Amino acid sequence: MDGAANITAAALLQQILVGLSRTTILFIVSSGLSLVLGVLRIPNVAHGSLYMIGAFLTYSVATLAGGGTVGFIVALTVAPLGVALISFVVERGLFCHLYEREHLMLLLFTFSIMLVFGDLVKLIWGSDYRSLTAPLFLQGSFSIQGFPFPRYNLFLLLVGPLVAAGLWFLTNKTKIGKIARAAAVDREMVGAMGINVSWVFAAVFVIGCYLAGLGGALVAPTQNITQGMDHTIIIEAFLIVIIGGLGNIWGALLGALIFGLTDAIGILIWPQFAIVFPYAAVVVVLLFRPKGLLKSTW
Q1: Contact call for residues 55 and 229 (beta carbons, < 8 A)
Q2: Cβ pair 51, 230 in contact under 8 A
Q3: pLDDT tens digits along 102-140
Q4: Phi, psi of 267 (to 5 degrees)
Q5: Structure pTM?
Q6: Fewer CB within 10 A of the terminal residue: the chain, N end or C end?
Q7: Over the stretch 63-104, which tens digit does the pLDDT of each residue have?
Q8: Phi-psi region for residue 150, left (φ > 0), alpha (ψ -120 to 50) or beta?
């Protein structure tokens, strides 16, 4: 950890901004998982696969649309909607028949769905990785006291608060959000009031999966798009949801901040063991707050 003594304020600021931009992706994916957990009580292991499909769809749509700025914007719009459509078919065809089953059965079922999605991705896109270039206006970087900071990361920093605000509006100010919150507390009472709880669950599931697809679309220009990218994100997303509080969307935001910032600062302080820092933070949180930082809906 000798490098810690040579850290400058500018370098620390740069890494914090990098950590916050990664937090955006983690929050978007984790909030979708947390929404499904909180309302439907489904530990959806296949959530990471939908994130991966979102990334591959973004690549394909952007390529078909001719690339560039227009291709990226079209892909960023279409790919998450494609993931939402897939999730709607899966929910209406399979999940809606299983809501009353035990959590372990649901966990195993979503694990099998994850394997199916993995094989479908391999069948459609093959085993080779794909890469997507950010649109021209988001390429390059600007200087923060001599340190470069990518423009695309700034774009992610702007998207994160917009998604958080949209989720707040959805859950607190819309009819479907209020019904979903009520169903999370007492689904039997909601059903007794004449509301079709099954379709409420379908809407929540689709919204949660849309967020997974959006996370995959946003991450596509920042890394190689390849099979296996779903494994890492689902582990991180579940840890974030657990430390934030099961089913608590704002807990997911707090957990994503902890995970993203500790990872970024770990790279600055001790690069060889940077991967340990976020997991160590998870251990510390759970030692003092076993039920998560914020109130769990479970």
Answers
A1: yes
A2: yes
A3: 878 888 999 999 999 999 999 999 988 899 999 888 998
A4: -60, -35
A5: 0.93
A6: N
A7: 999 888 899 999 999 999 999 999 999 999 988 888 777 878
A8: beta
